[in-house]
Amino acid sequence: MMAATRHGNPRFARLTAQEFRARLPEALSVYVAAMNYPSGTAEQRAPMWLTHALRAGWRCMAVLDNGDALIGLAYGYQGKPGQWWHEQVRRGLAASQGEQAVARWLGDYFELTEIHVRPDCQGLGLGEHLLRGLVDGLAQRHVLLSTPEGTSRAWKLYRRLGFTDVLRDYRFAGDPRPFAILGRSLPLDGPTEGR
């Protein structure tokens, strides 16, 4: 059961690409707050997020407070060769585990690109509801994501939902931080290892 926030009882909604574009400044504000990034980060991310919304299989879940303000969101799309994240993960996976691991994980997957909840609304189960709503009914075999290494609420959520290690301590081009690539089979309530 999910607790009410100080903003009332949250409402979950699937956003269309048009609704997402209209709420982009609000969504980026949630992202910057949740990640504790400098405010200029929003302007850098905006074009990328708009491009993501044009990709095949894109979908977005949002959580709104009683005043219809965005307090959390999650989005992703069908992962494919040629996409930056796909190519980065493919390179790391091939180097560390070989082509069989590449085929297993990257052959048919949904990339959970972003999932964020405003800091004052974290710890109430909103992230789990967002993630479950986002991947519900997907046709892909797997869902994959990347997250900075280190203990966090996000890590606890992913582990609780059965995400396993795909690639650890990976460094994406242009970012010195180590990341973990995590994945699991779909549907979310199904087995945690590949189907």
From TrEMBL:
Instruction: Report what the protein is called.
Output: Ribosomal protein S18 acetylase RimI-like enzyme
User: Which superkingdom is the protein from?
Assistant: Bacteria
Where is it found, in Gene Ontology cellular component terms? Answer: ribosome
Q: Which GO terms describe its molecular function?
A: acyltransferase activity, transferring groups other than amino-acyl groups
Q: Report the InterPro entries cross-referenced here.
A: Acyl_CoA_acyltransferase, GNAT_dom
What are the TM regions of this chain, as residue ranges?
none
Flavoprotein as UniProt keyword: no
Which SUPFAM superfamilies does the entry mention?
Answer: Acyl-CoA N-acyltransferases (Nat)
The alphabetical list of record keywords is: Ribonucleoprotein, Ribosomal protein
Pfam family example for this protein?
A: Acetyltransf_1
What are the N-acetyltransferase domain coordinates in residue numbering? Answer: 56-187
